[in-house]
UniProtKB/TrEMBL annotation:
The lineage of its organism: Eukaryota, Metazoa, Ecdysozoa, Arthropoda, Hexapoda. This is Uncharacterized protein.
Amino acid sequence: MNSFLTQYNKKWNKSCRIKDVFAKHNASFLETNFKFTFKKSNQLNENELENYDDENEAVTVSDSLKRGRPRLKYEDSSIKTKRRRALELASKYSKEELEHALKIKEKECDLATEGETNSETVCNEADNNNFLNQVLAMYLDLDLTKSKYDNSRTHNSVLYGDKLHPTYPSMCKAKNNCYPENIRVSKLGASVHLISLLEHTTKRILLTLNEKEFDAIKNRELILLGKWGMDGSSGQQNTRQNWKNEALNLMNDSDFSDEDSYLSDNEIISLSDNSVFMITFVPILLKTANQVIWSNKNPASPLFCRPIKFMFVKETDKLTMKIYNKYSSLLNKIEKYEFEFKGHLFVVKFDLHCTMIDGKVCNVLTLQKATTRCNICGVGPKFINDLRHVTNLPCNPDLYKFGLSSLHCWIRFMEYILHVAYSLDIITGEKEKDKTKKIKKKGYSKRVTV
């Protein structure tokens, strides 16, 4: 059949597609007898017999005899092919028929997916949550805004597909999961319940583990090691927000709960954003008795720093001591805390140390009035060079828990070098005379005079 059509097209084009010319020059070709063999329905192969239909025999046989590229599935087709096939269905069938067929197909899909187990559904949800968390990490690492994220998602959808990045509202759901419970906001500032923050931190750390790492945790008794501290900052730039000039009596303020009772002993504090007092916490290690589950590779980095509370108040010695006593007593009361995660019951012990403090806060906690005195032995600048006196001073081991800040050691060392440099005489030197300039100047003057 193909050879006949090929010869026919050549002769037809050679006769300039004129019927009389074609019949005149190709009379013998037209009188030739041709034999064509067609495949009968009983000679169809096994795959074609499965699709054979008695009611639509002609269509099935004709489709089986077609040659060329096979018909792709609707899911694997291009957008243009999908649109064309949808228009063909819309032109052949009415709206009621298509709606009725859609309902039947939905029931078939529901019956097909009815046998799926709940574990597979949970795994799909877990994979989706991990994907959203990774996208949120990318959003924060690149310091993107909502408009930048939407623009990048639009360009990536054109280049690679719609499934590359989720929508911004779906990413915000993962962002909301990062917030702990029991967050309180008031005129004084904002705070979160300490137990809620510690529980949320432990769960988020366990969430970063994969299935093998999570199943490898044989002991369900965990220990969360971390550090906490406080610091104040003054002289901040004031905003245009109107603050009341009169002081606020915390005893009569209903916005503050029992958690702020350490400030309510007839103490009056003025509200202003000129000063900020911050209490923070950093997780360092999550472990069991014989196994390290997670460790903070950069404990000095602010990446894992989690705020406990901030207040628009000025840092004072009285406020610092009260906050330290409050949170220290609260941590001592928490011996073991139980929570449920992924169907397992965990018991965690919180081991936190107050080491995130500067020299000023350390002097307040160690009851050292002078900032130039040592926090451990109490030696002052008067006897610091007397080695016999320093070695005989007793050290208080209870003060070791506050640690030694290497930063302030470097600051004191640089101050010492600076003061030593101040006492040195200023060295002056004579500037050497440039003889070459004088020689050039003399030679130039001689040329001018000549």
